[in-house]
């Protein structure tokens, strides 16, 4: 799967994008978030407060219970501030 | 129509081009968003807008399609810039054109309110104290919520 990070979440993880095989036991967005937080460091910091994290799977907003698969593009970003 | 670009735009030319040749149109409403030189009690020297290109295109297309479902519109245009912008620079243009003014006013208002809470853009402000990511505003969520259908 392709993971993307934007704005201050990108600054905390230290990467804009990365490829990752679907980790064992991860079936939904919530599981993926826990897996990434367990890496510690900037990932833990970026995803510690989910009230300020939005998630999109294949460019559509989703909740933590949305399923994720190996071919998905999953993006993590703060609430949007355009316009 | 939707465009996401770094270059500036000319609102008058965009408006003329959008409605050219359509004599059914009786009213056009446009909104232009600019970079302010202040925010929450501090000065702003510049803004840098980051976005998520693939999702931006999809979200803006969805927002525009929703406006056309809700109102009888003859033409709409959304132009949004990204990259580094300075106070006074134009950020966003929204135009709605219809046979009657009410649909044009409401659709233009809807488009900018929904864009602000759904399109994946993020602003970083250059301030005297360094760069700050702009936090989302509850008032923007409330503005978008008004258009939510029961």
Describe the fold and architecture.
The complex is a heterodimer of chains A (about 80) and B (about 150). The N and C termini of chain A lie far apart (about 30 Å). The longest helix of chain A has 9 residues, at about 30-35. Helices cover about 25% and strands about 25% of the residues of chain A. Chain A has helices at about 5-15, 30-35, 40-45, and strands spanning about 1-5, 15-20, 55, 60, 75. In chain A, strands 2-1-5-3-4 form a 5-stranded mixed beta sheet. Chain B has about 150 residues and is of the alpha+beta class. Chain B has one domain: Aldehyde Oxidoreductase, domain 3. Chain B is globular. In chain B, α3 crosses α4 (about 140-145). In chain B, strands 1-6-8-2 form a 4-stranded mixed beta sheet, sandwiched between helices. In chain B, strands 7-5-9-10 form a 4-stranded antiparallel beta sheet, with no helix packed on it. In chain B, strands 3-4 form a two-stranded antiparallel sheet. Chain B has helices spanning about 10-20, 55-70, 100-120, 140-145, and strands spanning about 1-5, 25-35, 40, 40-45, 45-50, 75-80, 85, 90-100, 120-125, 130-135. The model of chain B has no long low-confidence stretch (mean pLDDT about 95). Helices cover about 35% and strands about 35% of the residues of chain B. Chain B starts with a strand and ends in a 5-residue tail after the last helix. The interface of A and B includes residues 8, 56, 82 and 83 of A.
- Principal-axes shape call of chain B: globular
Task: Write the element-wise H/E pattern of chain B from the N-terminal end onward.
Answer: EHEEEEHEEEHEEH
The quaternary state of the protein chains shown equals: heterodimer
Q: What global shape of chain A is seen?
A: globular
Note the total helix count of chain A: 3
Biggest sheet strand line-up of chain A? 2-1-5-3-4
Largest sheet of chain B: 4 strands, mixed
The most extensive interface between chains reads: A-B, 17 and 28 residues
Number of domains of chain A: 1
Low-confidence stretches of chain B: none
CATH fourth-tier homologous superfamily of chain A: Beta-grasp domain
